[in-house]
Write a structure and sequence with these properties.
four-stranded antiparallel β-sheet; 46% helix; 379 residues; alpha+beta; 3 domains; three-stranded antiparallel β-sheet; rod-shaped; Tetrahydropterin Synthase, Chain A
Length: 379
Protein backbone atom coordinates (compact mmCIF):
# COMPACT_ATOMS: atom_id res chain seq x y z
CA UNK A 1 0.00 0.00 0.00
CA UNK A 2 1.44 3.36 -1.19
CA UNK A 3 1.63 6.15 1.29
CA UNK A 4 0.38 9.49 0.09
CA UNK A 5 2.61 12.43 0.68
CA UNK A 6 1.32 15.48 2.29
CA UNK A 7 0.46 18.02 -0.46
CA UNK A 8 2.75 21.00 -0.71
CA UNK A 9 1.66 24.58 -0.46
CA UNK A 10 2.17 25.21 -4.25
CA UNK A 11 0.12 22.16 -5.13
CA UNK A 12 -2.58 23.23 -2.75
CA UNK A 13 -2.71 26.72 -4.33
CA UNK A 14 -2.61 25.42 -7.97
CA UNK A 15 -5.24 22.80 -7.35
CA UNK A 16 -8.19 25.15 -8.10
CA UNK A 17 -6.58 26.28 -11.33
CA UNK A 18 -5.94 22.70 -12.37
CA UNK A 19 -9.52 21.77 -11.67
CA UNK A 20 -10.66 24.82 -13.70
CA UNK A 21 -8.49 23.90 -16.68
CA UNK A 22 -9.54 20.31 -16.50
CA UNK A 23 -13.18 21.34 -16.53
CA UNK A 24 -12.58 23.73 -19.44
CA UNK A 25 -10.85 21.01 -21.40
CA UNK A 26 -13.69 18.64 -20.77
CA UNK A 27 -16.11 21.20 -22.17
CA UNK A 28 -13.98 22.88 -24.99
CA UNK A 29 -11.54 20.25 -26.27
CA UNK A 30 -13.40 20.09 -29.63
CA UNK A 31 -13.06 23.85 -30.08
CA UNK A 32 -9.36 23.76 -29.30
CA UNK A 33 -8.83 20.91 -31.75
CA UNK A 34 -10.75 22.81 -34.40
CA UNK A 35 -8.66 25.94 -33.88
CA UNK A 36 -5.47 23.89 -34.11
CA UNK A 37 -6.57 22.39 -37.39
CA UNK A 38 -7.56 25.79 -38.80
CA UNK A 39 -4.18 27.20 -37.79
CA UNK A 40 -2.41 24.31 -39.53
CA UNK A 41 -4.46 24.95 -42.69
CA UNK A 42 -3.90 28.72 -42.64
CA UNK A 43 -0.80 28.24 -44.76
CA UNK A 44 -2.89 27.31 -47.82
CA UNK A 45 -2.94 30.20 -50.30
CA UNK A 46 -4.82 30.67 -53.59
CA UNK A 47 -2.55 32.11 -56.32
CA UNK A 48 -4.42 33.98 -59.06
CA UNK A 49 -3.77 33.48 -62.79
CA UNK A 50 -1.86 36.78 -63.11
CA UNK A 51 0.27 36.13 -60.03
CA UNK A 52 3.35 34.19 -59.01
CA UNK A 53 4.01 33.26 -55.35
CA UNK A 54 7.22 32.69 -53.39
CA UNK A 55 7.57 31.21 -49.89
CA UNK A 56 9.80 32.75 -47.22
CA UNK A 57 10.56 30.30 -44.39
CA UNK A 58 12.06 32.04 -41.38
CA UNK A 59 13.04 34.86 -43.78
CA UNK A 60 14.75 32.64 -46.40
CA UNK A 61 13.49 31.63 -49.80
CA UNK A 62 12.28 28.07 -50.18
CA UNK A 63 13.83 26.43 -53.20
CA UNK A 64 17.33 26.15 -54.63
CA UNK A 65 16.59 27.46 -58.14
CA UNK A 66 14.23 30.13 -59.51
CA UNK A 67 12.04 27.40 -61.01
CA UNK A 68 11.56 25.87 -57.53
CA UNK A 69 11.18 29.22 -55.81
CA UNK A 70 8.34 30.47 -58.03
CA UNK A 71 4.89 28.92 -57.83
CA UNK A 72 2.21 29.43 -60.47
CA UNK A 73 -1.53 29.91 -60.17
CA UNK A 74 -3.59 27.48 -58.08
CA UNK A 75 -3.50 26.21 -54.48
CA UNK A 76 -0.20 26.66 -52.64
CA UNK A 77 0.40 24.64 -49.44
CA UNK A 78 2.76 26.25 -46.91
CA UNK A 79 3.31 26.19 -43.18
CA UNK A 80 1.34 28.69 -41.09
CA UNK A 81 2.82 31.94 -39.87
CA UNK A 82 5.26 32.82 -38.44
CA UNK A 83 7.07 29.83 -39.92
CA UNK A 84 6.27 30.55 -43.58
CA UNK A 85 5.25 33.76 -45.30
CA UNK A 86 3.72 33.58 -48.78
CA UNK A 87 4.37 36.58 -51.04
CA UNK A 88 2.13 36.89 -54.09
CA UNK A 89 3.50 38.96 -56.95
CA UNK A 90 1.51 40.37 -59.88
CA UNK A 91 3.96 39.69 -62.70
CA UNK A 92 1.62 40.93 -65.47
CA UNK A 93 0.73 44.25 -63.88
CA UNK A 94 2.57 47.41 -64.95
CA UNK A 95 3.18 50.08 -62.32
CA UNK A 96 4.00 53.75 -62.80
CA UNK A 97 6.47 55.76 -60.76
CA UNK A 98 6.96 59.53 -61.24
CA UNK A 99 10.64 60.49 -61.01
CA UNK A 100 10.91 64.18 -60.09
CA UNK A 101 14.44 64.25 -58.69
CA UNK A 102 15.58 66.36 -61.67
CA UNK A 103 12.49 68.59 -61.81
CA UNK A 104 12.20 72.27 -61.03
CA UNK A 105 10.31 73.21 -57.86
CA UNK A 106 8.74 76.19 -59.59
CA UNK A 107 10.95 78.94 -58.15
CA UNK A 108 12.32 81.44 -60.64
CA UNK A 109 16.10 81.35 -60.92
CA UNK A 110 18.23 84.50 -60.92
CA UNK A 111 21.73 84.32 -62.31
CA UNK A 112 23.02 86.84 -59.79
CA UNK A 113 24.82 84.60 -57.36
CA UNK A 114 23.22 81.48 -58.86
CA UNK A 115 23.28 78.42 -56.63
CA UNK A 116 21.40 75.20 -57.26
CA UNK A 117 20.91 72.67 -54.50
CA UNK A 118 20.01 69.20 -55.85
CA UNK A 119 18.25 68.37 -52.57
CA UNK A 120 15.75 71.19 -52.96
CA UNK A 121 15.82 71.87 -56.70
CA UNK A 122 16.67 69.15 -59.16
CA UNK A 123 18.54 69.81 -62.37
CA UNK A 124 20.88 68.17 -64.86
CA UNK A 125 23.70 69.42 -67.08
CA UNK A 126 23.88 68.75 -70.80
CA UNK A 127 27.08 68.05 -72.67
CA UNK A 128 27.60 71.76 -73.45
CA UNK A 129 27.16 72.83 -69.78
CA UNK A 130 23.54 73.96 -70.01
CA UNK A 131 21.00 73.45 -67.22
CA UNK A 132 17.78 71.55 -67.91
CA UNK A 133 14.98 70.17 -65.74
CA UNK A 134 13.41 66.79 -66.39
CA UNK A 135 10.18 65.12 -65.27
CA UNK A 136 10.05 61.40 -66.01
CA UNK A 137 7.40 58.70 -65.54
CA UNK A 138 8.87 55.21 -65.24
CA UNK A 139 6.70 52.19 -66.04
CA UNK A 140 7.89 48.83 -64.76
CA UNK A 141 6.81 45.32 -63.87
CA UNK A 142 8.19 42.53 -61.71
CA UNK A 143 10.26 40.15 -63.81
CA UNK A 144 11.97 38.09 -61.06
CA UNK A 145 9.55 37.53 -58.13
CA UNK A 146 12.18 35.72 -56.04
CA UNK A 147 14.57 38.68 -56.17
CA UNK A 148 11.76 41.17 -55.71
CA UNK A 149 10.67 39.36 -52.51
CA UNK A 150 13.70 40.83 -50.75
CA UNK A 151 13.95 44.16 -52.65
CA UNK A 152 10.19 44.68 -52.95
CA UNK A 153 9.81 47.22 -50.14
CA UNK A 154 12.64 49.28 -51.65
CA UNK A 155 11.71 48.81 -55.30
CA UNK A 156 10.53 52.41 -55.76
CA UNK A 157 13.69 53.81 -54.23
CA UNK A 158 15.94 51.57 -56.30
CA UNK A 159 14.05 52.44 -59.49
CA UNK A 160 14.12 56.18 -58.73
CA UNK A 161 17.89 56.15 -58.11
CA UNK A 162 18.71 54.14 -61.24
CA UNK A 163 16.48 56.21 -63.53
CA UNK A 164 17.92 59.46 -62.18
CA UNK A 165 21.52 58.27 -62.61
CA UNK A 166 20.86 57.04 -66.15
CA UNK A 167 19.12 60.29 -67.13
CA UNK A 168 21.93 62.46 -65.74
CA UNK A 169 24.57 60.44 -67.58
CA UNK A 170 22.65 60.44 -70.85
CA UNK A 171 21.99 64.19 -70.73
CA UNK A 172 25.69 64.81 -70.11
CA UNK A 173 26.53 63.23 -73.46
CA UNK A 174 24.19 65.39 -75.58
CA UNK A 175 24.01 69.08 -76.45
CA UNK A 176 21.12 71.19 -75.24
CA UNK A 177 19.89 72.03 -78.76
CA UNK A 178 19.64 68.39 -79.66
CA UNK A 179 18.01 67.51 -76.35
CA UNK A 180 15.30 70.13 -76.79
CA UNK A 181 14.66 69.40 -80.49
CA UNK A 182 15.09 66.02 -82.17
CA UNK A 183 17.21 64.09 -79.70
CA UNK A 184 14.54 63.14 -77.16
CA UNK A 185 13.93 59.67 -78.53
CA UNK A 186 17.62 58.85 -78.42
CA UNK A 187 17.83 60.27 -74.88
CA UNK A 188 14.94 58.08 -73.69
CA UNK A 189 16.33 54.95 -75.34
CA UNK A 190 19.79 55.45 -73.87
CA UNK A 191 18.47 56.23 -70.38
CA UNK A 192 16.14 53.20 -70.46
CA UNK A 193 18.97 50.86 -71.41
CA UNK A 194 21.27 52.18 -68.68
CA UNK A 195 18.56 52.17 -66.00
CA UNK A 196 17.72 48.54 -66.78
CA UNK A 197 21.40 47.60 -66.52
CA UNK A 198 21.52 49.25 -63.08
CA UNK A 199 18.38 47.42 -61.92
CA UNK A 200 19.84 44.10 -63.02
CA UNK A 201 23.12 44.83 -61.26
CA UNK A 202 21.42 45.28 -57.87
CA UNK A 203 19.15 42.22 -58.38
CA UNK A 204 15.97 44.22 -57.99
CA UNK A 205 13.90 41.78 -60.05
CA UNK A 206 12.30 44.72 -61.90
CA UNK A 207 11.92 45.25 -65.63
CA UNK A 208 11.67 48.81 -66.91
CA UNK A 209 9.08 48.72 -69.69
CA UNK A 210 9.25 52.38 -70.70
CA UNK A 211 10.35 55.89 -69.78
CA UNK A 212 8.21 58.89 -70.64
CA UNK A 213 9.51 62.45 -70.63
CA UNK A 214 6.57 64.45 -69.35
CA UNK A 215 8.59 67.67 -69.16
CA UNK A 216 12.02 68.64 -70.45
CA UNK A 217 12.71 72.36 -70.25
CA UNK A 218 15.44 74.90 -69.46
CA UNK A 219 15.35 77.23 -66.43
CA UNK A 220 12.45 79.68 -66.43
CA UNK A 221 14.70 82.71 -66.85
CA UNK A 222 15.98 81.26 -70.14
CA UNK A 223 12.74 79.74 -71.35
CA UNK A 224 12.00 82.50 -73.87
CA UNK A 225 15.47 82.33 -75.39
CA UNK A 226 15.31 78.58 -75.72
CA UNK A 227 11.83 78.82 -77.24
CA UNK A 228 13.13 81.31 -79.80
CA UNK A 229 16.02 79.02 -80.70
CA UNK A 230 13.71 76.03 -80.99
CA UNK A 231 11.25 78.01 -83.13
CA UNK A 232 14.08 79.06 -85.42
CA UNK A 233 15.27 75.48 -85.65
CA UNK A 234 11.77 74.27 -86.48
CA UNK A 235 11.41 77.02 -89.09
CA UNK A 236 14.72 76.05 -90.68
CA UNK A 237 13.72 72.40 -90.78
CA UNK A 238 10.34 73.35 -92.29
CA UNK A 239 11.97 75.47 -94.99
CA UNK A 240 14.44 72.68 -95.73
CA UNK A 241 11.66 70.14 -96.07
CA UNK A 242 9.65 72.49 -98.31
CA UNK A 243 12.71 73.05 -100.51
CA UNK A 244 13.31 69.32 -100.72
CA UNK A 245 9.66 68.72 -101.59
CA UNK A 246 9.81 71.41 -104.31
CA UNK A 247 13.02 69.95 -105.68
CA UNK A 248 11.53 66.47 -105.70
CA UNK A 249 8.57 67.75 -107.73
CA UNK A 250 10.38 70.29 -109.97
CA UNK A 251 13.32 68.11 -111.00
CA UNK A 252 11.16 65.27 -112.39
CA UNK A 253 8.98 67.80 -114.23
CA UNK A 254 12.06 69.45 -115.77
CA UNK A 255 13.48 66.07 -116.74
CA UNK A 256 10.16 65.05 -118.27
CA UNK A 257 9.96 68.35 -120.19
CA UNK A 258 13.53 67.91 -121.38
CA UNK A 259 12.86 64.36 -122.50
CA UNK A 260 9.71 65.48 -124.33
CA UNK A 261 11.59 68.23 -126.15
CA UNK A 262 14.41 65.88 -127.05
CA UNK A 263 11.93 63.35 -128.42
CA UNK A 264 10.15 66.08 -130.40
CA UNK A 265 13.48 67.37 -131.75
CA UNK A 266 14.58 63.89 -132.72
CA UNK A 267 11.22 63.26 -134.41
CA UNK A 268 11.41 66.58 -136.32
CA UNK A 269 15.01 65.88 -137.32
CA UNK A 270 14.07 62.42 -138.53
CA UNK A 271 11.09 63.82 -140.45
CA UNK A 272 13.14 66.62 -142.06
CA UNK A 273 15.93 64.20 -142.91
CA UNK A 274 13.48 61.81 -144.51
CA UNK A 275 11.89 64.68 -146.48
CA UNK A 276 15.31 65.94 -147.59
CA UNK A 277 16.35 62.47 -148.66
CA UNK A 278 13.07 62.09 -150.56
CA UNK A 279 13.60 65.44 -152.33
CA UNK A 280 17.17 64.50 -153.14
CA UNK A 281 16.09 61.15 -154.56
CA UNK A 282 13.35 62.87 -156.60
CA UNK A 283 15.82 65.45 -157.92
CA UNK A 284 18.32 62.76 -158.88
CA UNK A 285 15.58 60.83 -160.63
CA UNK A 286 14.46 64.01 -162.47
CA UNK A 287 18.05 64.79 -163.44
CA UNK A 288 18.47 61.29 -164.83
CA UNK A 289 15.22 61.61 -166.79
CA UNK A 290 16.21 65.10 -168.04
CA UNK A 291 19.55 63.85 -169.33
CA UNK A 292 17.72 61.11 -171.22
CA UNK A 293 14.97 63.36 -172.75
CA UNK A 294 15.53 67.06 -171.98
CA UNK A 295 12.81 68.50 -174.26
CA UNK A 296 9.97 66.52 -172.78
CA UNK A 297 11.14 67.14 -169.22
CA UNK A 298 11.55 70.87 -169.76
CA UNK A 299 8.11 71.16 -171.31
CA UNK A 300 6.56 69.18 -168.46
CA UNK A 301 8.30 71.31 -165.84
CA UNK A 302 7.15 74.46 -167.59
CA UNK A 303 3.52 73.31 -167.72
CA UNK A 304 3.63 72.19 -164.06
CA UNK A 305 4.97 75.59 -162.99
CA UNK A 306 2.28 77.42 -164.94
CA UNK A 307 -0.44 75.19 -163.49
CA UNK A 308 0.79 75.78 -159.94
CA UNK A 309 0.86 79.53 -160.47
CA UNK A 310 -2.62 79.60 -161.97
CA UNK A 311 -4.11 77.29 -159.34
CA UNK A 312 -2.81 79.55 -156.58
CA UNK A 313 -4.45 82.65 -158.06
CA UNK A 314 -7.89 83.74 -156.92
CA UNK A 315 -9.15 84.63 -160.42
CA UNK A 316 -7.54 84.42 -163.85
CA UNK A 317 -7.93 86.91 -166.70
CA UNK A 318 -6.39 86.25 -170.12
CA UNK A 319 -4.67 89.01 -172.10
CA UNK A 320 -4.89 88.85 -175.87
CA UNK A 321 -1.72 87.96 -177.72
CA UNK A 322 0.53 90.89 -178.66
CA UNK A 323 0.45 92.65 -182.00
CA UNK A 324 3.57 92.07 -183.97
CA UNK A 325 5.05 89.74 -181.37
CA UNK A 326 5.46 92.49 -178.71
CA UNK A 327 3.33 94.15 -175.98
CA UNK A 328 4.64 97.65 -176.71
CA UNK A 329 1.89 100.25 -176.38
CA UNK A 330 -0.58 97.85 -174.67
CA UNK A 331 -2.29 99.27 -171.56
CA UNK A 332 -4.76 97.48 -169.29
CA UNK A 333 -7.03 99.63 -167.13
CA UNK A 334 -9.01 98.21 -164.16
CA UNK A 335 -11.79 100.19 -162.51
CA UNK A 336 -13.73 99.32 -159.34
CA UNK A 337 -16.77 98.57 -161.47
CA UNK A 338 -15.09 96.03 -163.73
CA UNK A 339 -12.56 94.43 -161.41
CA UNK A 340 -14.41 91.13 -161.57
CA UNK A 341 -14.84 91.32 -165.39
CA UNK A 342 -12.32 90.63 -168.08
CA UNK A 343 -9.94 93.56 -168.72
CA UNK A 344 -10.32 95.47 -171.94
CA UNK A 345 -6.96 96.17 -173.55
CA UNK A 346 -6.10 99.42 -175.32
CA UNK A 347 -6.64 98.85 -179.10
CA UNK A 348 -4.36 101.67 -180.25
CA UNK A 349 -1.60 99.20 -180.98
CA UNK A 350 -0.70 97.85 -184.36
CA UNK A 351 -2.62 94.91 -185.78
CA UNK A 352 -1.61 91.57 -184.45
CA UNK A 353 1.02 89.70 -186.27
CA UNK A 354 1.22 85.96 -186.02
CA UNK A 355 4.64 85.05 -184.64
CA UNK A 356 6.71 82.71 -186.73
CA UNK A 357 6.83 79.06 -185.72
CA UNK A 358 9.75 78.26 -183.49
CA UNK A 359 12.56 76.34 -184.99
CA UNK A 360 13.45 72.86 -183.87
CA UNK A 361 15.04 72.77 -180.46
CA UNK A 362 18.62 71.61 -180.23
CA UNK A 363 19.38 68.15 -178.86
CA UNK A 364 20.82 69.54 -175.62
CA UNK A 365 19.37 73.01 -174.98
CA UNK A 366 20.96 73.46 -171.57
CA UNK A 367 19.29 74.24 -168.27
CA UNK A 368 15.55 74.46 -167.88
CA UNK A 369 14.27 78.06 -168.33
CA UNK A 370 12.22 79.72 -165.59
CA UNK A 371 8.43 79.61 -165.55
CA UNK A 372 6.94 81.67 -168.34
CA UNK A 373 9.24 80.56 -171.15
CA UNK A 374 12.63 81.80 -172.33
CA UNK A 375 11.17 83.69 -175.37
CA UNK A 376 8.68 85.90 -173.47
CA UNK A 377 9.34 89.63 -173.34
CA UNK A 378 8.66 91.78 -170.32
CA UNK A 379 5.26 93.52 -170.47
Amino acid sequence: MRRLKTPSEIGRLASPIAHLLDGAWQRMHWWVATMAILYALSGITIVRPDEVAVILRWGHLVGATPALQEHGSGLLFALPRPIDRVVRVQVKHVWELPVTTLADNGDEISFEGLTLDPLTQGYALTGDQNIVHVDVVARYRIREPAEWAFYGPKADDVLRVEVTAAMVRSLGEMGVDRVLSDGRKELVDTATRRAQAGLDAVHSGLELTSLELTRLFPPLVLARDFDAVQSAYIGAETSKKEAQAYAESAIPMAQADTDAKLQAARAAAASDLAAARGDAQAFLALDKEYRANPVVVRERLYRDSVERAISAAGSVRWVPPPFGGAYHGLHITLTPGNVGSSPRPNTTSTPPVVPPAPSAAPRNPGPVPPAGGEDDDDP
